[in-house]
Each structure stands twice: as structure tokens, then as C-alpha cells.
Design goal:
By secondary structure, the protein is α/β, with parallel strands linked by helices. Helices cover 37% and strands 13% of the residues. It starts with a strand and ends in a 31-residue tail after the last helix. The structure holds uracil.
Length: 191
């Protein structure tokens, strides 16, 4: 299993799709050219891989790198939710189409939502969800690297906004007590 890397209290967490061959061998997510691009973009905003958290939606390498199955998504979900509760990131960046759909619970494609931040509750934790192009995909598309770079450049502003209100902080409005019936009230539906 590839659990993830980075700071246990990282304010910024990236979520990729699933380990590939190199990640399965070495145990760390996002190796190779895609990982190098992520590191370069992080350096551009004054961060390192060690200062952020990097995980995948799927913890084990799918055979032949095929797209993960829904049953795999479901069985890995509790790991991601537990990591969110432990690390408590402010900004959560799904990388690419698969992670974005999984975290948003929607079929909307990454190209429509990349670079758009929204407050979302994932598991028990509210985060600033900020989908990004997957660095591996961006590398195949020169304009993609520039879009990704521009989106990453906005991360410091999102981090500066701090964590959104958490579900447990949102106090339900008090429900007024039901008045006792007084003599003379018409009681409907009793008989
Ligand atoms: N390797 C990972 O760890 N995650 C991806 O999404 C792709 C390759």
C-alpha cells in the first residue's frame, strides 16, 4: 500500500489517482516526471514536498495501471477520510479527472472545474477544495503546464484564507419547544 508522504499537519494536501509502477516499488506517491513537475511548481510558491501532504485516492496499484473500479474507490475511501481528520489540511487539491470526480462526488470533468476553489466537506472535514490538472496529463499538453502553473500560483491566497468552518462548528438552530396543549385547544388527529 502507498499511504502517502509529507508533513503530518500539512495545510496543503494533494490527492492523486493511484500508485503506478514506480510508486508501488518505492512506496511514495507521485514519482517520475509528474512528481518533478509538482516539486518545481511547489518551489515556485516557496513550498517543498516535505511541507505538504501527497496521497492517492487509491492506495494500491491497479493491475496494468487501469482506471480504478468503484469497488476499489469505496474500499480506499476510509483511508483518505482518516488522513483528512488527522492532517486537517486547509486546501485539498485533487489532481486530475479521477481524483476530482471522486472528491466532488460528481462526473463534472476536471477541465471545467480546475482552478476553481469551493468549500466542500470530504468525510468529516470541510476543506477548500481546489482541483488541479494532473501533472502527468499536463506534461502531454504544453498549455496544460502553464494552466497548472497559474492555478498553483493561487494556492498561497487560498491557504491565507484559513480553514473553512467545520461541520462540528455549525450549530444547529435551536428548535422551539413544542407548547403544551392548553384547555380548549382543538387537538387534531387524536381519535
Ligand atoms: N502516481 C501516483 O502516485 N499518483 C497518480 O495519480 C499517478 C501516478
Amino acid at each position: 500500500m502507498v499511504f502517502g508522504t509529507g508533513a503530518p499537519d500539512a495545510a496543503l494536501m494533494f490527492v492523486g489517482e493511484a500508485p503506478g509502477l514506480a510508486e508501488d516499488r518505492d512506496g511514495d506517491p507521485l514519482a517520475g516526471a509528474a512528481g518533478e513537475l509538482l516539486d518545481e511548481l511547489l518551489a515556485g510558491i516557496g513550498l517543498t514536498r516535505a511541507a505538504v501532504a501527497v496521497v492517492n485516492v487509491i492506495r494500491c496499484r491497479p493491475p496494468d495501471n487501469r482506471t480504478p473500479l468503484v469497488v476499489e474507490l469505496n474500499s480506499c475511501q476510509e483511508h483518505l477520510h482518516a488522513q483528512l481528520e488527522l492532517v486537517q489540511p486547509v486546501v485539498l487539491c485533487p489532481l486530475g479527472d479521477f481524483a476530482t470526480r471522486a472528491l466532488r462526488g460528481s462526473t463534472t470533468r476536471i477541465t471545467r472545474v480546475r482552478g476553481t476553489a469551493e468549500v466542500r466537506t470530504v468525510g468529516a472535514r470541510a476543506v477548500r477544495l481546489y482541483p488541479l490538472l494532473h501533472p502527468a496529463a499536463a506534461l502531454y499538453w504544453p498549455e496544460g503546464v502553464e494552466l497548472l502553473r497559474a492555478d498553483v500560483a493561487r494556492i498561497p491566497d487560498l491557504l491565507a484564507q484559513g480553514p473553512p468552518p467545520q461541520p462540528e462548528d455549525i450549530v444547529a438552530p435551536e428548535v422551539p419547544a413544542v407548547a403544551e396543549p392548553v384547555a380548549g385547544d382543538v387537538q387534531l388527529g387524536l381519535f
